[in-house]
Amino acid sequence: MLVYTPHINNRIRYVMDFAGTQISGQPFAVTDDINGFINFSGPKINYSNEPGATSEYWIKPHPLLTETGTHTQSITVFETNGTKAFFKTEGSFLFDVFAATFYLLSRYEEYLPHRKDLYSRYAHENSLAFREKFLAVPLVNQWLLLFRDSLQSKFPSLPIRERKFSFLPTYDIDEAFSYKYKGWFRTAGAIVKAILNGSLDKVTERRKVLNGGLQDPYDSYEWMDALHEQHQLHPRYFFLVAQQTGKYDRNILPCKAAFKSIVRQHAGKYDIGIHPSWQSGDKPELIKEEMGVLENLTSTKIISSRQHFIRLTLPQTFRYLLEAGIKEDFSMGYGSINGFRASVASPFYWYDLEREEKTELLLYPFCYMDANSFFEQKYSVQQALDEMRQYYKAVKDVDGLLITLWHNTFLGTDSLFKGWRETYEQFIREAAI
Q: Which of 34, 303, 386, 395 is disulfide-compatible with 327, CB 3.0–4.6 A?
């Protein structure tokens, strides 16, 4: 596919790379040579203000891709072909699929003035997807399937990429144990707090665990291993290895023998990534230090990450990760609600809007997190299962990549999360078919 545009820049190259790869398996070629475009005999898209020959596919561009910087955009969402769209235009397609895709993938709206949430993150209520009620939809994937079909009706010989649905379960290990290996000071404090709250059953449970008479409620690792083996799954684990505990960094210290053992066991079976501590959000130099700790434990190069609490600020967070040597990040989702933050169910490279450049950081978007269902959305186990099924169907319908995020804490035996282990197991039985 050859695309003509009179103004080639990084935004246009970026979106033509993504759209082309998704549709045909390779980037769309781009030219600003009108004569060469006219004489080209293969499939071609005229991405300019004026239509040309009938042999071309014409899309009149929205100005977004030729602008620089970020500005408040006037966006009107409308219905077309059973889905939602914006940036309506003239030509062979009803809207500028390139500009709209770029707007969502680049997270353009997160660079604009916005309200922060309780954790000083971009509040999901700001997003177009939430306001216009398409947060639960991989809209970009839907658009590109419609666009592919439209192109193929014009150019039957257009090569089409074979796509296949895939499922990737991922886990954040940010509190490896509930009671064990916490040290006397934290243990004593927790006991006093439980007594003051009248939770004497927790004091009894803690004593049994520490005396070896009961398994730690968060120790779900063998159960998870058996589930993966049964269904031939290849998950990813992200470990928090903060060298100091804090309000939001509650894991046992990485110097503990038990923690070292867990990390090494998982590194021998699965792909491992860093779960940068909350502290690293204020001191980005800690990211590299924590990666070094995890690399020493696993004897492997760490290149993937997911932000703890999904503490993510654009563009700073992704720049820090790149500087530390991270190549893949799994933080593209919300820590306050489930859904598709970038409206896509496919990996994509991060575009730095301030620097106007495509980066080498490959983003893997997740759409479901257990903690969102439980703490934020207040779902029952049945509602959570229904929600996971909804995302499974949405991603499968577009032959995308479904990424879920769970914690060992939900999959253990803690009474707070009663029924969640069984719910997850039921979903895995359905999703891994």
A: 303
Please state, as a whole number, how many other Cβ atoms lie within 10 Å of the Cβ of residue 234: 11
User: DSSP string of 221-281?
Assistant: HHHHHHHHHHHT---EEEE---SS--SS--SPPTTSHHHHHHHHHHHTTSEEEE---SGGG
Residue 365 and residue 246 in one domain? yes
Residues 136, 22, single domain; the answer is yes
Same domain, 251 and 202: no
Q: What six digits make up the tokens of 365? A: 């978007």
301-327 tens-digit pLDDT? 999 999 999 999 999 999 999 999 999
Note whether 227 and 149 are within 8 A (CB): no
Beta bridge partners of 59: 91
**The total number of structural domains that make up the chain:** 3
Whole-number Å distance between alpha carbons of 265 and 268: 5
Q: Name the residue among 121, 125, 141 with its Cα closest to residue 331.
A: 121
Establish if 160 belongs to a structural domain.
no
What CATH number corresponds to the domain at position 366? 3.20.20.370
Label residue 393 left, alpha or beta by phi (over 0 means left) and psi (-120 to 50 means alpha): alpha
Beta carbons of 334 and 340 less than 8 angstroms apart = no
pLDDT digits (tens, 9 = 90+) for 371-415: 999 999 999 999 999 999 999 999 999 999 999 999 999 999 999
pTM score: 0.96
Asked if residue 350 and residue 378 are part of one domain, the reply reads yes
The answer to whether residues 368 and 338 touch, using CB atoms and an 8 Å cutoff, is yes
Asked if 91 and 188 sit in the same domain, the reply is no
